[in-house]
Amino acid sequence: MAELTLFFSAFLAATILPFSSEAAFLFAISNEMPIPNALFAASSGNILAIVLNYYLGYFLFKKSKHKLESSKTGKYAFDLGHRYGYLALLLSWLPIIGDPLTIVAGLVRLQFVWFVLIAASLRIARYYFLTLVV
């Protein structure tokens, strides 16, 4: 049951809702949840949510395509997203800015496989690093 709670808290934290999965993760470990279970629950919830974010961005493109292409700023932003999108994903593990970056990745249509490899591995690494700190 505790693993499921951690999974959902990590999922919600990876959306644009203001929620801290790190606090829930540390709470679970401090209450003697086995570290592998905590890593799996938090990472899988977080990764599932960033995949959802990617597809939200992906489908937002269809709704905003005309507006993006018709404005100079929109074209510039879209070009920046394509040029630096994968590099920007290296920041996707950070609180506050990371989750919107996963939406932008879908909006600018970064390749899904590379998106998952970069963003998911950083999410797992973040939780693993927390286990080393505690």
In words, what does this structure look like?
It is a single chain. Helix content is 81%, strand content 0%. The chain is an all-alpha fold and 134 residues long. The chain has one domain. Helix 3 packs antiparallel against helix 4 and helix 4 crosses helix 5. The longest helix has 36 residues. It starts with a helix and ends with a helix. The model has no long low-confidence stretch (mean pLDDT 88).
| Total beta strands | 0
Distance between the termini: 23 Å
Q: How many discrete domains?
A: 1
Name the shape in a single word.
elongated
Concise structural overview:
The protein is 81% helix and 0% strand.
Output the keywords.
mainly alpha, 6 helices, 0% strand
Give a topology summary.
Elements: H1 2-13, H2 21-30, H3 35-70, H4 72-89, H5 98-107, H6 112-133
